[in-house]
Amino acid sequence: MTVGIDLGKGASGASAKVDLEELLATRLLVQGNSGSGKSHLLRRLLEQSAPWVQQCIVDPEGDFVTLADKYGHLVVDAQRTEQELTRIAGRIRQHRVSVVLNLEGLDAEQQMRAAAAFLGGMFDAEREFWYPVLVVVDEAQLFAPAAGGDVSDEARKLSLGAMTNLMCRGRKRGLAGVIATQRLAKLAKNVAAEASNFLMGRTFLDIDMARAADLLGMDKRQAEQFRDLERGRFVGLGPAIARRPVPIAIGPVETSARSVSPKLMPLPDTAPEDAAELIFKIDPEEERRIIRRPPPPPPAPTAEILERLTRQRAEPIAPEPPPSLFPEIDQAEREAALAAVLREIVDDPDAGFRSVAVLYQDFLVRCRIHRVPGVAPDLNNFKRRLAIARAGVDEETAESESWAQAVQMADTLTDDIRGVFLVVAQAALSGSPCPSDATLARAYGTHSPSRARRLLTYFEERGLLVLRTDFHGMRIAVFPELSAETAPGDPNAPDELESRDAAE
């Protein structure tokens, strides 16, 4: 069945149709400067396709929440934890509910982290829930920037990775990306290059006009027309739109955004003396809300600052304080307390799917709650301790030379896969069955068993272990350097921790 979405009028006044099924397979990129009608185009596309396909809108300004009143979209407030957003995204794919992810009120880094968690949850959904979803991302240059900005590198990598998965690998999972940006030059090229359909609106900078013309197969002389486009008019090209560039005038919409363009309004007729009273007179209610702060001290003269610095250099270094009369911290007691805190974190079934940064903050809070003496371990030390704790090794095995050698082998791996290796090594040293794909996936922080299998193949390619299968299809992991191997284990068995929690 072919579904044509009516965007508006074409060059000859005929209806400009977009093939929805083709759009789901080939993705769409929209460019237009602020005020070009870019959001109006997205709203028209969403309204026309709402009866036919599930929709997910990543909305940084809260403009699309009005779709909920007429079309039943569920508004998801992004002021939640990343774990909650990932879970919500998985349930959205399962129950096929159209949603608007409202990022209004968050700063740039929080918006990137929230969008990455939400898109990651949709991307990692189980195969049985890979229904087609139209994923619209407004202001995509915020989530897939071409260069670093004021946000941290971690937030940028998470957001850019989620956008890359959406545009590059999302088609097989039923995710059809529709991204809109004010400037192509600010959008990461590997994200923009995956779109096969384009709608280019008004733009003024030469670099953006040149990139738009290049994507549409136009020469430099034709690129000048993007500067003269009126509001709500675009040039479209792509297998879902047309085989040649065509002008499109976007039609009207049934809903409106909460934020609209400013309109000229006459100034109020206020006499000068009345205006002064309105501005300078403090209302009693306002007076109670004002926080009185003392005025800042006057700046010190330059001569006084120089004299103070000279005096500090001339003063002798203070002697070291005498040793404390109190007993030193018992290191064994401290290590036991840290191990208990790590065990609490590992025993949480959801801990495997949280980022290391979130787990580290949880670790610091728990250390304060349990009053662990001394300075808490830094992030790198925490990562190593967490990987060892996830292995669940007992005291006898932990004190053996074989386990120390296994930890040294794990130190040659990156932080994200070190814990998976130690889980398998612990099973080999204790003679336990080889962990299932679900157990290894939780240790890796994913719901995908295939990723866990690829990790085992990677370990085997590195020469760390050898995998073999017995006659019953059970998997055995052999560690030649440790002279140990696991007992046969079912690779398709459920996660041990989840099964234990369900039984309890």
Task: Provide a concise account of the structure shown.
Residues 484-504 are annotated as: Disordered. By secondary structure, the protein is of the alpha/beta class.
CATH superfamily of the largest domain: P-loop containing nucleotide triphosphate hydrolases
Largest sheet: 11 strands, mixed
Tell me how many strands there are: 14
Strand content is: 5-15%
Report Rg.
Answer: 30 Å
Given this structure, which CATH class of the largest domain is correct?
Alpha Beta
N-to-C terminal Cα separation, in Å? 49 Å
Mean pLDDT: 81
| Count of the domains | 2
User: Which CATH architecture of the largest domain would you pick?
Assistant: 3-Layer(aba) Sandwich
Helix coverage percent of residues?
A: 40-55%
- Spans where pLDDT lies below 50 across 5 or more residues: none
Structural class: alpha/beta
Q: List the strand order in the largest sheet.
A: 2-1-11-10-9-3-8-7-4-6-5
> How many individual helices?
20
Could you name the CATH topology of the largest domain?
A: Rossmann fold
Shape, principal axes of CA atoms: globular
Pfam families: DUF87
Keywords: ATP-binding, Nucleotide-binding
InterPro entries: ATPase_Atu1862_pred, HerA-like, HerA_central, P-loop_NTPase
Domain Helicase HerA central: 11-78
Describe this structure in words.
With 504 residues, this protein is α/β, with parallel strands linked by helices. It has 2 domains: 4-250, Rossmann fold (3-Layer(aba) Sandwich), CATH 3.40.50.300; 331-503, no CATH class. It has helices spanning 20-26, 38-49, 67-71, 82-95, 108-123, 153-169, 189-192, 206-216, 272-280, 284-289, 302-314, 331-347, 356-369, 379-391, 395-398, 401-410, 415-430, 437-444, 449-461, 496-503, and strands spanning 4-9, 15-19, 28-31, 54-59, 74-77, 99-102, 133-137, 175-181, 197-200, 233-238, 242-250, 466-469, 475-479, 484-485. A hairpin with a 5-residue loop joins β12 and β13 (475-479). The longest helix has 17 residues, at 153-169. The mean pLDDT is 81.
